[in-house]
Design brief:
about 130 residues; alpha+beta; GIY-YIG endonuclease; three-stranded antiparallel sheet; 5 helices; 3 strands; flat
Amino acid sequence: MSSDDSTRPPRGQSRRSELKQAYKEKPPAMGVFAIRNRANGKVLVGSSLNLPGALNRARFELSTGIHRLYPALQEDWGRHGADSFSFEELDVLAPPEEPGVDLKEELRVLEALWLERLQPYGEAGYNTPPA
């Protein structure tokens, strides 16, 4: 074995390091999500620059009873239980090919389309109706 071989990581470990680095460099999915209450048909529509993170945060906040933005959603979670809810990605926004695109604005437009389509207000959902 040459001295060069002893400093080189094993082949499997090198590949694993490459995959970890690629994962870290990949931006998270952006888009629009829905939290559906299958017990009563209500839905919450939202959007995020980090879709998996937003869904994980919402699930965590609801399960620990600290979801403050939508008290009716939290109340229904307590009443119906976690198994009555689904967490869905409605639309994923592709990363822009050119720099300078306002991703937040793109998400607002995409979310507005889903809000118009689903009308998750009043008895149908948890979102606040537009003014």
